């Protein structure tokens, strides 16, 4: 039985100030501690690497587990997909976010997990630089028949959607979009054309074609099957920002799987990382570059795997008991139901990744089916993500309501002063004196921040 099932948390009294007018949100306030990351779903060599990083470098197992999942899924990329049933397939595309305050070693944990990927990406860049020098030399020598080299990469750390689309065109197997602070990714969504970039990213998650249209024909791109995994960190206090601009309603936030572990007591780490353990992990990830890929006319033709018969039956059982029963529960808020609908697709994606990890760790050929064991392990991971989503909502709900109450007070104060005959400039100055920020005033009153700054200097 899932320990976080809603029936284990009886609704609080409607007069309870912590009710938040949402019985499920209220029940989350008393929810149990979060589940630990199920490292047992990984091959032993991966478990050993994460364990040694944890004990010798004080890294966080949950965060390293997320990084490993993301690295492996990105290396598989568009090459493989899993068919759940006729007409329904999923690729190993994952948007993963780790949550924790500054100083708990979020970035070092992720970096340790994806370091082999970073090393391989550096090698690809060096190859491109050499190829580009050779290309320029041959052009200078009068050879116009040579083809311009195409940059290949496995990682992107800073790119708007306009810059990302040509990169995806040049890398049909896909890549990993890695951000130390994921809010930079969220902020990029509204940097230029509000809503457009967000819709493009939603298309990427669903493997729908995306386009970049420019006046110059050479700058027009279409990517039929874009693949970009996302990985990065978030500070707990900015979690409510993820749900702004209807992202909690349109399903954008629901596509993100969270790791929000309980604080771990740091200890003096006297031991050193085993070189063999580290080398085994690096070799493990490097082997994924050698998996079979079917490429035609610059496009990847994905190889389709299916569930084994036992795994297929397990999926149907899980889908009914874990997904459908919860979605049909009228007491659950729409944000939870939206996340559950995305987890229905997330679990098969995880199963595909875990099956590959098992096969590659044993140096055996690519899998033909996804086993019952990989499916059960994927269910463990999905339970973990559902559990940690609840912790995210426990953090977001009261903060979001507190912000809404603060905005309401701001608006009431503004209206009162305006009706009292004060000018808009004077009212804004008074709001600043009351402790409201430029951003709050700008957002609530729809006044440009530059205008507010100008008024305060008059």
Please characterize this protein's 3D structure:
By secondary structure, this protein is α/β, with parallel strands linked by helices. The protein has 15 helices and 13 strands. The strands form 4 sheets. It has a 5-stranded parallel β-sheet with strand order 4-5-8-3-9. A 4-stranded mixed β-sheet has the order 2-1-12-13. A hairpin with a 2-residue loop joins strand 10 (295-296) and strand 11 (299-300). The radius of gyration is 25 Å and the shape is globular. The protein starts with 22 loop residues before the first helix and ends with a helix. Mean pLDDT is 85; it is low at 1-31.
Write the SSE topology.
Layout (H helix, E strand, L loop, with lengths): L22 H7 L14 H14 L3 H16 L3 E6 L2 E3 L4 E5 L6 H35 L14 E2 L4 H10 L4 E7 L1 H6 L7 H10 L4 E3 L8 E3 L4 E7 L4 H4 L13 E4 L15 H12 L8 E2 L2 E2 L2 E5 L1 H19 L6 H28 L7 E2 L1 H48 L4 H10 L4 H8 L3 H9 L1
Parallel strand pairs: 1-12, 3-8, 3-9, 4-5, 5-8, 12-13
Antiparallel strand pairs: 1-2, 6-7, 10-11
